[in-house]
Design brief:
Strand order of the largest sheet: 2-4-3
CATH superfamily: Winged helix-like DNA-binding domain superfamily/Winged helix DNA-binding domain
CATH architecture: Orthogonal Bundle
Number of domains: 1
Structural class: alpha+beta
Distance between the termini: 27 Å
CATH topology: Arc Repressor Mutant, subunit A
């Protein structure tokens, strides 16, 4: 995998694009299952094709997805995840006051997603302990040490990050939140 610089998600339009539940579900599906069309996303997410097409175009405009021209024919357009993998969020003081609600909504939706994954962890662990793993720890750190720990954690995630089409045949998609959970059981 190529080295990638972190990307600060401080563009209000891009932040608002990712603070929408359906767009988050669409990106999640593309991450887990790979390329899809607006029709397949509509079927999977129980949404109308016109709705998914609209949201796909917005995600493309923001650089989060890209069309796969060699797979697209006529009106059928295939999409894949694109853009940065290591996205960092700004602190509220780096946004204009009118853009801060989008940051709050981004966090709210993300926490709802994480809570749902966390609640699924015990059952996933019973089914498949080789793939459902958890780690808890405790430490005293300075601010500088916490920053070093965070950057090392992100570097480790980036080292093992792959797109679906780059993954070996025995690889599985995993949600990683300092615990892992198979993503292909949804």
């Amino acid at each position: 995998m190529k080295d990638e610089e972190s990307f600060m998600l401080d563009d209000p339009a891009k932040l608002k694009a990712l603070a929408h539940p359906l767009r988050r579900l669409m990106l999640r599906h593309l991450n887990v299952h790979g390329p899809a069309t607006s029709t397949t996303l509509g079927e999977v997410l129980n949404a109308k094709t016109g709705t998914t097409s609209y949201h796909l175009r917005l995600l493309e405009k923001c650089g989060f997805i890209e069309e796969i021209p060699e797979r697209s024919t006529g009106r059928e357009r295939w999409w894949r995840k694109a853009g940065p993998t290591d996205m960092r969020l700004p602190t509220p003081d780096r946004l204009a006051p009118e853009d801060r609600p989008a940051l709050a909504e981004f966090h709210r939706i993300g926490m709802d997603e994480d809570r749902e994954l966390f609640e699924r962890f015990p059952a996933a662990y019973l089914r498949d302990p080789e793939w459902a793993r958890g780690s808890r720890g405790f430490s005293w750190m300075t601010g500088a040490e916490l920053e070093e720990f965070y950057e090392a954690y992100i570097a480790l995630l980036m080292k093992y990050h792959r797109r679906p089409e780059e993954a070996p045949p025995d690889a599985r998609p995993l949600y990683i939140r300092l615990f892992t959970l198979p993503a292909d059981e949804e």
